[in-house]
Amino acid sequence: MTTALITHSDCLAHAVPDGHPERPARLEAVLHALEGKALLQEEAPLATDAQLRRVHPQAYIDALEAMMPALGGVPIDGDTWVSPGSMRAARRCAGGAIRGVDMVMQGAAHNAFVATRPPGHHAERSQAMGFCLLGSIAAAALHAADHHGLSRVAIIDFDVHHGNGTQDMVWDDARIMYLSAHQMPLFPGTGDPSETGSTGNVHNIALRSGAGSAEFRAAMTGAILPAAHAFAPELVLVSAGFDGHRADPLAGLMLAEADFAWVTGALCDLVDAQCGGRLVSCLEGGYDLQSLAASTAVHVDVLIARGG
């Protein structure tokens, strides 16, 4: 058994204006950091409309396709842009997450890391926002439930920003548990602990700016991980955002590479105990190139060590 790396060069073709934090160099830095590691490399397929309709109405998918310019860039909002290659890149993100689910469920890999961009956890059912176009990880979770017949899929999100889109997409689905530890107040303004889902399937832990390692680890060990263990997931998906790093320009959680290695190990303990090690991690945020590369490398190193 091994760790799969799922990616695609199309994800470099999602162009943004100069100075935008969610730039192609992010993925280049991540892939460079993973060079030479013992990974089973796999190309991310394009998610189909049928796969995306689990989380987005067809009218939204069609409208997003129609928005792609022939040249240049078009803003959806002040943060979120599209270019000629953006929809293919976003489909690769969702398709890669779905392919990761298929690989671990079929035993082709022990676990998987999906290195794609743009991120996805802010995209709501009918609204792109926060750099995100399609709800990749939610689409993968619902694929696991519908296609593989799973009744308990956990999504654990340690991106510094709350995954409002993922939460929105699974709010009414008791098969999916969404658990997030994030900085608050911070974009997008959601993620209060009072937001619990229609069946108690949402768990949010809000961390103050500057919280650092001790508070982050306490949130995970005191709340997120116990709730996930109690849910007894058959598969765990991870929204792996590395923008909680102290060097990141968009937040202030003050984490370090050691915290990302630690949380990855804790998540591996969870999946080893509950679901035979089945874990698919999807890249979300992380906007300082050096800390993003270093944090991703330690995250994947743990996945490799635990997936061997």
Quick synopsis:
The chain is of the alpha/beta class and 308 residues long. It is built from 9 helices and 10 strands. The longest helix is centred in the N-terminal third of the chain and has 21 residues, at 86-106.
Structure explained in plain terms:
With 308 residues, this protein is α/β, with parallel strands linked by helices. The protein has one domain: Histone deacetylase domain (Arginase, Chain A), CATH 3.40.800.20. The protein is 40% helix and 15% strand. It is built from 9 helices and 10 strands. The chain has helices at 24-34, 49-52, 58-67, 86-106, 136-148, 164-170, 212-231, 257-274, 289-307, and strands spanning 3-7, 40-43, 74-75, 81-82, 111-114, 153-157, 176-183, 202-207, 235-240, 279-283. The strands form 2 sheets. It has an 8-stranded parallel β-sheet with strand order 2-1-5-10-9-6-7-8, sandwiched between helices. A two-stranded antiparallel sheet has the order 3-4. Helix 4 packs parallel to helix 5 (136-148) and helix 8 (257-274) runs parallel beside helix 9. The longest helix has 21 residues, at 86-106.
